[in-house]
Amino acid sequence: MLSRLRLELIGCAVVFVFGAITMIGAMEHTIGWADDGPQAGYFPFRLGLVLVACSVLIALQAMANRSELAGEQMLSREGARRILGFFLPLVGYVAIAQFLGLYIATALYLLLVTRWIGRHPWHTCIGVAVGVP
User: Fold this and answer.
1) Among 60, 75, 124, 131, which has the highest number of CB atoms less than 10 A from its own CB?
2) Helix, coil or strand: residue 3
3) How many angstroms separate the CA atoms of 63 and 74, rounded?
4) Is 104 left (phi over 0), alpha (psi -120 to 50) or beta?
5) Is 65 strand, coil or helix?
6) CA distance 7 to 89
7) What are 84-117's pLDDT values in tens digits?
């Protein structure tokens, strides 16, 4: 489903965007050096710059090695299903925790995951969901 080349380029794009956002946010402040030392945006701007530069360099390296990276399969459909099986309940957990609180959201999350992913019997799922939080 995803080759190593695509996964590397997607990772580079995410890091690039994060670095660019960091740089833009830092430019809301002074990014230079003053008599009393670095200004508020000095270090965040340079950190964003390093992230952008590293993501570009890694993307160039991946493209230079694309012949060997393109053939390597990193994520199959089954692997993606398993990852989403844990990721989607976590998204639901975060969304529910905003309204119901952490204890109830944790109980619901554990009940869902132990039953759906773990395929444990209901009495075990309920015990974990009530006992852990």
Assistant:
1) 75
2) strand
3) 16
4) alpha
5) coil
6) 23
7) 888 899 999 999 999 999 999 999 999 999 998 8
Q: Evaluate whether 5 touches 69 at the Cβ level (below 8 Å).
A: yes
CB 87 within 8 A of CB 62: no
pLDDT tens digits, 54-65: 999 999 999 999
Maximum alpha-carbon separation in the chain: 67
Write out the H or E segment, with its range, that includes residue 127. helix 122-131
3-state secondary structure 84-117: HHHHHHHHHHHHHHHHHCHHHHHHHHHHHHHHHC
Nearest to 109 by CA among 83, 120, 117, 121: 117
Q: How many residues does the chain have?
A: 133
Structure tokens at 6: 């695509």
Q: How far apart are CA 55 and CA 66, in angstroms?
A: 16
For residues 108 and 89, the answer to whether their CB atoms sit within 8 Å is: no
